[in-house]
Design a protein that fits this description.
The protein is α/β, with parallel strands linked by helices. It contains 13 helices and 17 strands. The strands form six sheets. It has a five-stranded parallel β-sheet with strand order 7-2-1-14-15, with helices on both faces. It has a three-stranded antiparallel β-sheet with strand order 3-4-9, with no helix packed on it. A three-stranded antiparallel β-sheet has the order 10-11-12, covered by helices on one side. Helix 1 packs parallel to helix 9 (314-338), helix 4 packs across helix 6 (225-243) and helix 6 (225-243) crosses helix 7. The model is unreliable at 362-366 and 368-376 (pLDDT under 50).
């Protein structure tokens, strides 16, 4: 029996009936609107990542059509995410996706193949161009580097703001020779002044090293989520001003609320800004208990044994539902973007199981056994 789905208007959905109206206060006929999102290419993307990427393209298409303005998607690839851990002398080190290899191919390259397939498919669906920016390229941005120096120059305030339960700021360094980095750093070893930051690190293979960060240079520095989120906001504001563009951040809804207010908005205020990038947050995909459907939890603990295995990663989804399944998801996400009541809420994995069955009944009953096998 089909279950009725309710869409009660909550929060900002009371104030608007069109998502594109929410950007009008900042849209002053800029030549282009860019919607930025990011993800870690640490595996084949799961249902939550796929629907967030779909939301980005669907929103870009909606804004283009409503405002008659050129729109573009910018995907930030976070290949600096850890891919493997290695123990040396009872200390834990890591290698990121770019420096970790499987059969002579980096894990970044392996995993980005799936992301590139999805991005290309969504670009065609929405008729929206996109670009991919690696973390390595991101950290070279002069505004990123300058704001990182400014944060360290004000480290006591930002330690309490960004890392309230830690003993120091968390900035990772990796060995410039082999890419090995320390997994956890309790005390940041650095020297700083108004114009430069020098970070000290140790590689158990290649010994001591130093990383210099200035506004103009490009030496690699690996900054974590809090720093990325805040410094990205700085770069967006500065580059929009320089390029006559308007950039919108769109991430999963698990980054909304106190995270966005504290790590992003209050950080920008402290850095001297009195305006902030527009942020949208895609609906969160939840498990049966109301918790975020977490890919990292599944990878670490083998959780979700009772959830349809097709939702765990893109490869399984395609095997299970094929391109028709992607079409069903795309139609669903477009419905969210068309109606704020559907956009400003979350959806359970059970909900997606229901819509896949409703839209794919003949297929579903023919392949029930295969689905059950994926669940095991």
């Amino acid at each position: 029996m089909k279950r009725e789905v309710f869409y009660p208007p909550i929060g900002i959905a009371h104030a608007t009936n069109k998502l594109s109206d929410l950007i009008l206060y900042k849209y002053k006929n800029q030549k282009k609107i860019i919607i930025n999102t990011s993800a870690q290419p640490n595996s084949s993307p799961h249902l939550g990542t796929i629907t967030t990427l779909m939301t980005v393209f669907a929103l870009a298409s909606k804004i283009r059509d409503d405002l008659k303005v050129e729109t573009e998607v910018q995907f930030d690839e976070l290949e600096n995410s850890p891919a493997e851990t290695i123990e040396y002398n009872e200390e834990i080190y890591y290698k990121d996706q770019r420096h970790s290899f499987y059969q002579q191919e980096s894990k970044e390259q392996i995993n980005m193949k799936r992301f590139n397939k999805i991005l290309e498919k969504l670009s065609v669906f929405a008729n929206i161009p996109y670009s991919v920016r690696s973390y390595n390229e991101f950290q070279k941005n002069r505004y990123i580097r300058k704001s990182l120096i400014n944060i360290v120059n004000d480290k006591e305030y930002f330690k309490e703001l960004l890392f309230p339960s830690a003993s120091d700021l968390h900035i990772r360094t990796i060995c410039p020779t082999c890419g090995l980095g320390k997994k956890t750093i309790k005390r940041l070893e650095e020297k700083h002044n108004k114009n430069e930051l020098i970070l000290k690190g140790y590689c158990p293979i290649h010994g001591l090293y130093e990383i210099k960060v200035t506004e103009e240079n490009e030496e690699y520095v690996d900054i974590n989520t809090q720093f990325r989120d805040l410094t990205k906001g700085v770069a967006m504001l500065e580059e929009d001003k320089k390029n006559d563009t308007l950039t919108i951040m769109l991430d999963g809804g698990d980054w909304s609320g106190i995270w966005a207010q504290r790590m992003h908005t209050e950080g920008l205020v402290r850095l001297g800004f009195n305006e902030f990038p527009i942020r949208f947050f895609a609906p969160v995909i939840l498990d049966w208990s109301g918790a975020k459907f977490s890919k990292s939890l599944y990878l670490k603990n083998g959780a979700y044994k009772d959830i349809n295995g097709a939702f765990i990663n893109y490869d399984s989804f395609i095997k299970c539902y094929g391109d028709k399944g992607i079409d069903i998801l795309w139609k669903e996400v477009n419905n969210w973007v068309e109606d704020p009541k559907k956009f400003f809420r979350n959806y359970s994995v059970d909900y997606f199981q229901m819509i896949m069955e409703e839209n794919n009944n003949e297929w579903y009953f023919r392949n029930t056994l295969f689905i059950r096998l994926l669940w095991l």
